[in-house]
């Protein structure tokens, strides 16, 4: 793999979970979660990461996102990551828990643009319309609230929120596990369409081996905090 074709490079990444038992003065327990993980994802590919629950998949995703501390190095487009970056966005397992039920969909979609101070109000509105269409929803959905949507529609909104900052890498962590079979299949097809139409790079994390095989060009299996094969 040529260096200039590498989007994400994970080098010797380890993570230790620390827990203090029996209160403030209790014994500190350290449990290794990731053990010298090495991984590379090419530009424009869908890479699958699978393994049993508790093997470290989500912990690795959180390290890549810069949400938790780790030993080792992580590079995106050759740049060493030192914290949270808008270049990497996440789609989580439970779309309902990721969306504020008190807000309308239009506000939720625009929120990342507000936070990063991108565009005028008119430009943000147009961008929301464009992204809604991209994820298979009509712009009229801006006026709806979360409770009016199905599980699959909520996940489309979460994908749209992740895409609206134009990330280099999208991480989908068990993004279909809370959906029924039909909605899950539609979301898989949406990921494939986004990849085919825009060249979006995706790290698809799932314990569902059939979904990984259907969607991903290359895969890795995690076992006990390590890449097994």
Give an account of the 3D structure.
The chain has seven helices and ten strands. It has 229 residues and is α/β, with parallel strands linked by helices. A six-stranded mixed beta sheet has the order 6-7-8-3-9-10, sandwiched between helices. β1 and β2 form a beta hairpin. α3 (105-115) packs across α4, α3 packs parallel to α5 (151-163) and α4 crosses α5. The longest helix is centred in the C-terminal third of the chain and has 18 residues, at 181-198. The two termini are 17 Å apart.
Brief characterization of the structure:
By secondary structure, this protein is α/β, with parallel strands linked by helices. It has helices spanning 57-65, 95-98, 105-115, 121-134, 151-163, 181-198, 209-215, and strands at residues 6-20, 28-42, 46-50, 71-76, 79-80, 88-91, 169-173, 201-205, 218-223, 226-227.
């Amino acid at each position: 793999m040529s260096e200039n074709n590498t989007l994400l490079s994970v080098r010797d990444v380890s993570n230790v979970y620390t827990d203090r038992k029996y209160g403030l003065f209790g014994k500190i327990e350290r449990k290794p979660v990731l053990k010298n993980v090495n991984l590379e994802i090419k530009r424009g590919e869908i890479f699958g990461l699978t393994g049993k629950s508790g093997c470290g998949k989500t912990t690795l995703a959180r390290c890549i996102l810069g949400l938790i501390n780790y030993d080792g190095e992580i590079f995106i487009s050759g740049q060493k990551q030192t914290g949270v970056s808008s270049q990497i966005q996440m789609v989580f397992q439970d779309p309902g828990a990721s969306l504020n039920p008190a807000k309308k969909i239009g506000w939720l979609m625009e929120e990342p643009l507000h936070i990063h101070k991108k565009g005028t109000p008119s430009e943000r509105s147009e961008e929301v319309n464009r992204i809604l269409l991209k994820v298979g929803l009509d712009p009229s959905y801006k006026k709806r609230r979360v409770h009016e949507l199905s599980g699959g529609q909520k996940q489309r909104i979460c994908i749209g929120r992740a895409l609206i900052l134009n990330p280099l890498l999208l991480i989908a962590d068990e993004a279909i596990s809370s959906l029924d079979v039909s909605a899950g299949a539609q979301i898989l097809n949406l990921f494939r369409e986004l990849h085919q139409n825009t060249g979006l790079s995706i790290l698809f994390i799932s314990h569902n081996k059939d979904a990984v095989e259907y969607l991903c060009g290359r895969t890795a299996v995690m076992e006990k905090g390590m890449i097994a094969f």
